[in-house]
Specification:
Order of helices and strands: HHH
Distance between the termini: 24 Å
Largest sheet: none
Radius of gyration: 15 Å
Structural class: mainly alpha
Strand content: under 5%
Helix content: over 70%
Shape: globular
Number of strands: 0
């Protein structure tokens, strides 16, 4: 199993790094559109949603799916 050292970031660091990544990928206007869109869906309980989506998946399956998605981008 892989240890993700990046999981030790504070919430503030995650928001800053995530914002920078979105701006780099989408540009400022795309970033703002993303934020406006995500404000409407942020009322969901992410942990409950995560449990529903990944309930029957192993960590290896999640990793393989993420890797395949990244390679097919």
């Amino acid at each position: 199993m892989l240890l993700n050292e990046k999981s030790k970031f504070t919430d503030k660091e995650i928001i800053e790094k995530g914002s920078r990544a979105l701006i780099k990928e989408l540009g400022y206007s795309g970033f703002l559109r993303f934020i406006r869109h995500s404000e409407g869906i942020s009322k969901e309980d992410y942990l409950k949603l995560e449990d529903e989506i990944f309930d029957d998946m192993s960590l290896d399956e999640m990793f393989d799916n993420a890797k395949e998605h990244w390679e097919n981008r």
